[in-house]
UniProtKB/TrEMBL annotation:
Residues 58-161 form the OmpR/PhoB-type domain. Residues 58-161 bind DNA. Gene3D superfamilies: P-loop containing nucleotide triphosphate hydrolases, Tetratricopeptide repeat domain, Winged helix-like DNA-binding domain superfamily/Winged helix DNA-binding domain. This is AfsR/SARP family transcriptional regulator. It comes from Streptomyces qinzhouensis. The lineage of its organism: Bacteria, Bacillati, Actinomycetota, Actinomycetes, Kitasatosporales. Belongs to the AfsR/DnrI/RedD regulatory family. CDD domains: BTAD. SMART domains: BTAD, Trans_reg_C. GO terms for biological process: phosphorelay signal transduction system; regulation of DNA-templated transcription.
Length: 1138
């Protein structure tokens, strides 16, 4: 059996010439990971093209080789057809730049410019070589010998894809073959397949890069030419009505392309829509005149004249595609079935092309998917399009509810009588007679709804394919036939864009005034999301717009089976209501399958196999049977595989149905307990692993389970199960912190604390965790009281009996001290932080907790830095990094980065500081550590500021501000605003500087961070002095000096002294200014960190202002005298009252 698997992952959403890129018209499709040719089982050869009727190959079949894609996101496919991950943006950029001119050398200097632009690294050639080596490793891992595809060739590097290995080459080959083909039907098919190669706009993920723009535009032009070629081929076939509808969107996207518009006008005219055709011409003429100042070309003018004259030449014969009679030869007596689907097929353009392409080379294709996904309508559309390829026609046989043996139903539909059909007389069973009748025929047989008789249908199809070599079979079924030659094509739900289009189209048919606008867009999107993009469900919901409006619909879908029951009267009974659709599938299940399905229904975010086994086994279900039962549910399209099969999920409507069945079963309480127990085990097992080498896997797993765990906490709380709610919430605290979900953490921990009861130790943990995340989020002005309450409750809990050795500290209290102290980072409350970190460090060391020791050391390093103890801070940070390395915790290793980079900056080692922060930013992004990203961006902005790159500094800080705001991470925003304020003053933008700094000052005061104001007040004082407001400058510097003294940081005190010197210089008191500069210089030198050259701007400016006035000797004497005084004495000597 061959599976054709698809998905969608590109950002692009656009129409590709009437055939939408990717899955079902939603835009840029995901890489088709596995497409197997020739009936090969499993992951096999990637098929870009098919084979024509004469058997000659066109396109490319990359057998065991490597494939490259540029028609969509830039992609690499391995020899087995799977997508290859190309890590790191620069490496992907290199690949894209080489594929702009595949097979041609690209100069090294051009590649360097493409990769780094204006931010060229110090050794660009070496940096480029490193990226080339990384890309070669990727290619080598993808396929043996892949490294040799990327070669060094003057003047740079050359990527040499194999023949047919580039999707763009396949596209061109198909288009060229089509243009050489005289038969319009064959030509249209080839062009259809050429367009199906596209997954989205060329170089979609590099659309904004200069190196890709011209190539993307070039390929887009080639695509549009093929769209136009295909339209003209279909005009020649008389396929006017369908073509007119399909061209509406590409014409809207490219309104001035005259050839495309001409094809649309011909199609409209020939399908009886002459008025629309004339209006279309008038619209084009107006657009050309207003937009370009030109008239339509001669061809369009001639077409317009012919339409006005009603030229008979425009009335070419119409296509038979909408209703293919598929009549047998003259001696046949059986009836024919019309195949035109009722209503326009929306959002399935690419699906039609892909399935049609498969049927050109495969003899058995099965469309699978859940009920209501649109299998039948898709099959009818495909069959209608392919009718002219089968001399003996296309026949539809409906197996649902037909009764009897499938062979008898098919025979009846084909008019096979006991006395023979089509000249064939064959006694025996119906299947044998049918096989004999079809043995010499070339026919497409469409078997619809095989799931009710799947075993018998499979046996019949196997016999017919073996005995009738000219027969091709297209089936629809909610489960596979499981035959060797079968190619499965799972029909996915509509992507959001297509789903919205379908809903709006159907709603406006029942409510003519309805249209999509800004007022109802969010409500429509909610309906689409809640109904999983299932076409039938969307159509049922659309019928309610006329009586309910659209805004009430999302809320009413909580009771969807009552709401969605007004289906079409011409639909089969099983498709008239949403409940009937799912009832049909439920009735086909065995009892064990029903038990497993209803037990899975509470999980809102899907589940792993491990979770399924945990919640489904027991009470009649053997754990060893869960896998097979789950596989059966996947085959029956009631359970969906997500990604590569690591997770499974139920569509929301299926889950809602199964929840009803669960309540009816009498076992909801037991199943709920299983789900909660699994949630507790999962969260508590993950918590310690977040501190070690498996943290990436754990973070990813918890990302996938986050919705389920949130549901578990809420369900436990609502059911009075406080202990389980507390256990899950506290176990998830560190995950939420790492992911930057402080709001979610705070809300959840607050909610579980409000629940009645619960073990005291669990309640204490929740209080500590909730207090910590509240402080981290920057929303607590009464930190001291909150911390005291959390510590008191933790101490009152006492230790477990096994932990009662007097000489050992209490682990619970030690962890509480550390977490609360860690939360105080960024608050400026140094004394409180030190009072917590010290006991935590001692406790972790006594307990032998190496990770805890590293965490406390990292915190103490920052505290020592802020106290001006630079050597001690660096030593603590290095030891913390060493211990985190030992533990394998790459995330926590970011904590020592701040003190290490700060010490490097203070000593003027900006290269080291930049390197540490860039490495830290890469780690934060790799692990998704959201709150670390804005902090590290602000750090890079500070380095840019110190090195005089004001534009880069502003860019980094603005990005940091946006990132922090998106997380509701107020302290991250404040750090970014500080950087923006400092940069604005140095750029000569005093108004912007004061605005940013005042916002920071207000927030510091709001939350009680007076100690953090030393820098802010000094900067505001400098601004006031520059504006000539000396009195205000002295007042601000006095406030700043008091804040600096409270921190006990000599560098902060020195900054305040420099600020006083600036104000005094502005007041004409140069000698006092020189004295204070000398005192400040001595204070900095005493810490081992005199001002680096890049930070001397204010000091040098004041010196330059007063030295010439005083004279060198007087200035030096005052400066030397100040260096011998304490700050207090120096201020007194300068006549400054503080």
């Amino acid at each position: 059996m061959t599976r054709v698997r698809r998905g969608c992952s590109g950002p692009a959403r656009r129409v590709f010439g009437g055939v939408r890129g990717g899955r079902d018209g939603g835009g840029c499709g995901r890489v088709r990971k596995v497409v197997v040719a020739g009936g090969t089982e499993g992951k096999g050869r990637r098929v870009y093209g098919e084979r024509d009727r004469e058997g000659g190959a066109y396109g490319a079949v990359a057998t065991g080789g490597i494939g490259f894609g540029i028609l969509g996101e830039v992609t690499v496919w391995a020899g087995d057809g799977g997508a290859v991950r190309v890590p790191e943006l620069k490496v992907r950029t290199l690949l894209a730049a080489l594929l702009v001119d595949p097979g041609r050398p690209v100069a090294a200097h051009r590649l360097i410019d493409d990769l780094w632009g204006d931010e060229t690294p110090g050794n660009p050639q070496r940096a480029l070589q490193a990226k080339v080596s990384q890309l070669r490793r990727v290619l080598a891992e993808a396929v043996p010998g892949g490294r040799e595809l990327l070669v060094s060739r003057a003047p740079g590097y050359q990527l040499v894809p194999g023949e047919g290995a580039l999707d763009a080459a396949v596209f061109r080959t198909l288009a060229a073959r089509a243009r050489r083909t005289p038969d319009p039907a064959v030509r249209a098919g080839l062009l259809e397949r050429a367009l199906a190669v596209w997954r989205g706009p060329a170089f979609a993920d590099f659309a904004g890069e200069p190196f890709a723009r011209a190539a993307a535009a070039r390929w887009e032009e080639e695509r549009l030419l093929v769209v136009e070629d295909r339209a003209e081929a279909r005009l020649a076939l008389g396929d006017h009505a369908a073509l007119a509808a399909e061209l509406a969107e590409p014409v809207t996207a490219h309104p001035l392309r005259e050839r495309l518009r001409a094809a649309q006008l011909r199609a409209l005219y020939a399908s009886g829509r002459q008025a629309e055709a004339l209006d279309g011409y008038a619209s084009l003429r107006r657009a050309l005149s207003e937009g370009l100042g030109v008239d339509p070309g001669p061809e369009l003018v001639a077409l317009h004249t012919a339409m006005l004259r009603q030229d008979p030449a425009l009335d070419t014969p119409r296509a038979v595609a909408p209703e293919i009679p598929a009549e047998p030869p003259a001696d046949a007596s059986g009836p024919s079935r019309a195949l035109a689907p009722i209503g326009r097929l929306v959002g399935r353009e690419a699906a039609v092309a892909e399935v049609a392409g498969l049927l050109a080379s495969r003899r058995l294709v099965t469309l699978t998917g859940p009920g209501g996904v649109g299998k039948t309508r898709l099959a009818l559309t495909v069959a209608a399009r392919l009718g002219d390829r089968f001399p003996d026609g296309v026949r539809l046989v409906e197996l649902a509810g037909a009764g009897g043996e499938p062979a008898e139903v098919v025979a009846a539909e084909l008019g096979l009588r006991d006395d023979g059909v089509w000249g064939v007389r064959s006694p025996g069973p119906p299947a044998e007679r049918l096989a004999a009748a079809l043995s010499g025929r070339r026919m497409l047989l469409l078997l619809d709804n095989c799931e009710q008789v799947v075993d018998r249908a499979a046996a019949l199809v196997e016999l017919l394919l073996r005995r009738a070599p000219g027969l091709v079979v297209l089936t629809t079924s909610r489960e596979p036939l499981a035959l060797a030659p079968e190619t499965l094509w799972p029909v996915p739900p509509l992507d959001p864009d297509a789903a919205v289009r379908l809903f709006v189209e159907r709603a406006s048919a029942g409510a003519p005034g309805f249209r999509l606008d800004d007022g109802n867009r969010s409500a429509v999107a909610a309906v689409v999301r809640r109904l999983d993009g299932l076409p039938l469900a969307l159509e049922l919901a659309a019928t309610r717009v006329r009586t309910l409006g659209v805004h009430r619909l999302p809320g009413l879908l909580d009771d969807r089976f009552r709401v969605l029951r007004a289906g079409r009267r011409d639909a089969p009974a099983r498709q008239r209501t949403l409940r009937a659709v799912i009832d049909w599938s439920w009735e086909l299940l065995s009892e064990p399958e029903r038990v497993v399905l209803r037990r899975l229904s509470p999980h809102p975010d899907g589940y792993t196999l491990e979770a399924a086994e945990a919640v489904c086994a027991g009470d009649g279900i053997d754990p060893a049977d869960v896998l097979d039962l789950l596989a059966g549910l996947v085959d029956r399209s009631l359970v969906q595989m997500v990604g590569d099969g690591e997770r499974y999920r139920l569509l929301e409507s299926v889950a809602a149905y199964c929840l009803e069945r669960l309540r009816e079963s009498g076992e909801p309480a037991a199943v709920r307990t299983r789900h909660l127990d699994y949630g507790v085990r999962l969260a508590e097992a993950a918590a310690p692993r977040l501190h070690g080498p498996g943290q990436w896997e754990q973070l990813t797993a918890l990302d996938a389970e986050n919705g389920n765990l949130r549901w578990a906490v809420e369900t436990a709380g609502a059911g009075g199960d406080t202990d389980r709610a507390l256990r899950i919430a506290t176990a998830l605290t560190w995950y939420w912190v790492l992911r930057g979900r402080l709001g979610e953490a705070r809300r959840t921990l607050s909610a579980v604390r409000e629940l009645p009861g619960g073990a005291p130790v669990l309640r204490a943990r929740a209080l500590v965790a909730g207090t910590a995340v509240t402080i981290m989020a920057g929303d607590s002005g009464n930190r001291a009281a909150l911390i005291a309450a959390a510590l008191a409750e933790t101490a009152a809990v006492g230790r477990e009996p096994a932990e009662c050795a007097e000489e050992m500290p209490d682990p619970e209290l030690t962890r509480a001290h550390w977490l609360l102290g860690h939360a105080l980072h960024g608050t400026g409350d140094l004394a409180a932080g030190e009072a917590l970190t010290g006991p935590a460090l001692d406790g972790f060391r006594s307990l032998g907790d190496r990770w805890g020791e590293a965490a406390a050391l990292a915190d103490r390093a920052t505290q020592r830095l802020l106290r001006g103890a630079l050597t001690a801070a660096r030593a603590d940070a290095l030891r913390a990094a060493e211990l985190f390395d030992e533990a394998g915790d790459a995330c926590a290793k970011l904590w020592p980065v701040f003190p290490l980079t700060a010490v490097a900056e203070i000593h003027g080692d900006y290269a080291t500081a930049r390197r540490l922060r860039e490495e830290g930013l890469a780690t934060a992004r790799r692990f998704g550590l959201s709150t670390q990203v804005p902090e590290l961006l602000s750090g890079l902005g500070r380095i840019a500021l110190l090195t005089g790159d004001f534009a880069a500094a502003r860019d980094h800080h603005e990005r940091a501000l946006r990132a922090a705001a998106a997380l509701d991470f107020r302290s991250g925003e404040i750090n970014a605003l500080i950087g923006l304020g400092l940069g604005a003053r140095r750029e000569g933008r005093p108004e912007a500087a004061e605005r940013h700094l005042r916002e920071v000052l207000d927030w510091h005061r709001e939350v009680g961070l007076e100690g953090g104001n030393a820098l802010i007040l000094a900067e505001l004082g400098f601004l006031a002095a520059e504006a000539g407001e000396v009195g205000e400058a002295l007042r601000l510097q006095a406030e700043g000096y008091a804040a600096a003294v409270s921190t006990r940081d000599p560098r902060a005190v020195a900054l305040a002294l420099e600020g006083f010197a600036d104000a005094l210089a502005a007041a004409g008191r140069g000698e006092s200014a020189a004295l204070l500069l000398g005192c400040a210089d001595a204070a900095r030198t005493a810490t081992g960190a005199p001002l680096a050259a890049a930070e001397r701007g204010d000091v040098d400016r004041v010196t330059a202002a007063v030295r010439p006035v005083l004279g060198g000797g007087v200035f030096a004497a005052a400066f030397t005298r100040g260096a011998l005084l304490t700050p207090e004495a120096a201020l007194a000597a300068a006549g400054v009252v503080v």
